[in-house]
Amino acid sequence: MYANGLDSYTMHVDDAESAPTIASIDEELGVGPPADTRDLDPETAARRYLNAMIASPEVPSISTADAETPATEYRTVRTETVPLTGSRIVKFAQYRHRIPVYGSLVTIELDEGNTLVSIGSAVGEPGDVDPVATISPADVQKVIHKDAGESAVLADPPRLYYYFDNTAEPNKWRLVYIAQNVQRHPPTDGDSPVPDIVDYLVDAHTSELVATLPRVYTATWSPDTAEALDGLDQKRELRIERDENGNRRLHDPERKVETYDLDFKKWNGPGTRLPGKDVLNPPAAWIPAAVSAHANAQEVADFLFNVLRRDGLDGMGQRLISSVNCTDMFEPSTTIWRNAAWIPMRAQMVYGQRPVNGELTSYAIAKDVVAHEITHGLTDRTAGLVYQSESGALNESYSDIFGILISNQHEPDVAQWNWEMGEDLNQTGIPLRDLSNPTRRNQPAHMDDFLVTGADNGGVHTNSGIHNKAAFNLITAKHNGQHVFTSSEVAALFYIALTQFLSSTSGFADSRRAIERAAKTLFQQNPPATRARKLAAIGDAFDAVGVSAL
Ligand SMILES: [Zn+2]
């Protein structure tokens, strides 16, 4: 039998024998403050179930691991939606003394109401293995070089894990350093050598070489993940590709997000080939501008896919391409271009940069602005709102709304949302907006103050404030102290309205009707009183800014 040292457990609510477990978990959930799981994000809801599982004597594997292994914690790995079932699966990894237990995984499946559907867990009990390493990463490198020769290349610093050594006699838990993706160069014997990529596992107490684990060999770029600092000096999680030589590029194969470097060429100049060249690492770390562009585009693509169930801007898996380090042929500067734009004919983003404290800073750093610009691409593909006067203001407003929805997507509490647009790009020419209070940024917030002007395509960046305020009213609508809508519901409403019901010449009243129409279908299964309350909230949101349905 394959021994990985992990205790496994699975349970599904439809199982007849699950009843005592469910009852036990419910009992544990009853301890502490009551919470309506529907109002929680899936991670929080899953964590409540996880904590109940740990406390429950009916789930012995995980509760024993916890009792036997002090300082155990579970960290979220990922949350995924499975469209075929409509359920969400939250994955956790087990840590002990802040060190991951190799191979551990707890998966909690929830339905759309965050009710428990199934549980799977595989957790370990490293017991009394000392969590403090007595050798250093430099010692690990020596062990690797001794085994693979001085030419072996470590892609990343070694990291500590609890590892179950099933080759030891008897099998035992160890504290090991794992150096992932070590590139070995086998001696040549006439043929061209194929680089060999392996993970090295070295005992963190004895320096013993515990194992070398092969990585799957592929002749092409394969999916991987990486962490890197963006243009705001924040650590971002990236989905990337890695080739057989350990080269890494900013291509996310999951969502087809690709980021390129135009190397300060004029994006619209004769002879310039967009999107530019791949952003490779090695030889050097990725440039922060590219990390920002990639991570932010990824968040947009994730939002489209996870929240709106849309695969790419065209709904058919279209690539989402960004180019950083762009300049403009109509600007004399060879380094500065104060803009970020969706280029419809190229179906891609281009990002300029400007000096901040003597350093060139990319327009790709601001997540809300990136989401705003890419939403122009979505609008371009769907409603096609003409970019002038009221339809242009509506176009701007939908970009602002999705900019806010996407940049706040990881904040489940709407009360904590940031309603400002472009604040990271202050004093750069990007107009600032505040959806909660448009007048703060010199935008009207009511039809009475609609600006009639020939400038700015008929005030598209000004009158958008009116529709923005209606959106703010809708998103934050409350009944008896509770939000009327979840953030996903409002996203679905605006999304269905924009992509299904609006036309190129639609105005604010069309938008109100489109949203009301979307709501009638979306909340069809709600109790009549709830549905009526939601529809009334939409009407109130628009009435307050003077946009009637007629
Ligand atoms: Zn815009």
What are the main properties of this structure?
26% strand; Nuclear Transport Factor 2, Chain: A; binds zinc ion; 6-stranded antiparallel beta sheet; 4 domains; 7-stranded mixed beta sheet; flat; Elastase, domain 1; alpha+beta; 550 residues; 11 helices
Polypeptide structure, described:
Residues 233-379 form the Peptidase M4 domain. It contains eleven helices and 25 strands. The protein is flat and about 80 Å long. Helix content is 30%, strand content 26%. Strand 3 (87-96) and strand 4 form a beta hairpin. The protein folds into four domains: 6-124, Nuclear Transport Factor 2, Chain: A; 137-214; 222-365, Elastase, domain 1; 389-543, Neutral Protease Domain 2 (Neutral Protease, domain 2, Orthogonal Bundle). The model is unreliable at 187-195 and 216-220 (pLDDT under 50). The chain starts with 5 loop residues before the first strand and ends in a 7-residue tail after the last helix. The strands form six sheets. Strands 14, 15, 16, 18, 19, 20 and 21 form a seven-stranded mixed β-sheet that branches. Strands 1, 2, 3, 4, 5 and 6 form a six-stranded antiparallel β-sheet that branches. A four-stranded antiparallel β-sheet has the order 7-8-9-10, with helices on one face. It has 550 residues and is of the alpha+beta class. Zinc ion is lined by residues 372, 376, 396, 399.
